[in-house]
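User: Okay, second chain of the day. Same drill as before: sequence in, structure tokens out.
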Amino acid sequence: MNTNRTRYHVGFHEIGLDSEYRVECIGEDVAEIFAWLEGDISGVAEDVEDDAPLDELYARLAKCDTVAELVGEHTADAFVFFVRPVTDCGCPCDCDEHGEECDGEHRREAAAEPQLAETDEQGRSSFKFDRAEYVVFNTASKPLDGYWTVERVAADGSSLPMREYVLVGQQTREDAFALAVEKLRPSRHITFMPQRDRTITMSQEDQDAEEYPTVTRDGWVCAWSTAGYVVVFEDRVERGIVWPGKPIEASVAGQDGRQHDLDGTWRFYEQAAAAVRAHVLDARA
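Assistant: Same drill. Structure tokens below.
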């Protein structure tokens, strides 16, 4: 399993504009990062009248011996060439050997940031996160602050029950979109099982059976207890517990068999689960 979760997004853009060409996701490899920058600089130099600033930038970057020296934004003429450290970026991978489970040793294309589409005639705005589509809408009869909701769109286009909503009661459309993306990011690395609440119709046998959840799949998985907490598993082994209260609390299972509290402030329990995963991987590195 890959424990080096910091990678680098490498590319360029014109000042004031987004990147028009491919941004590469690369590991801790100074030669590979510089090779990508070199290709970008050379390509731009072919398209401009005065390539002297680009030649000067190339000469300066060629003297860098470490990734740390390359990290940052490097401006030449009207262009910015960048190397940005990213952690748990979740970029897609076209590696034939590992596919989506790339172990981090392969080059990957940086994932595009989700973009909120223009509103339709019903005042709904959609966006895509990985392979799923989501819609932002207002639950009031007319758009009111504090009533913005984010819902995942079912594969067949039908509406999902309210328990499937990503967020409800957000102040503005933009707030709802930004917070939804923030909440969804951990799902690139962890599978979150549906919440199963303890209800008056649930038998005592079912309550007892699910008071400590189990999982039947490998990888990082979060499963709910009927007691209201979340267990974080890696390859079916418990790595930590999250209590989604106010505030949200999290702990990591130590080698001594005891739970050790994690310091942190999280908006969503998914982020706390991601913090458990990060702590485990950091300790292992």
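The radius of gyration is 23 Å.

User: Thanks, on to the next one.
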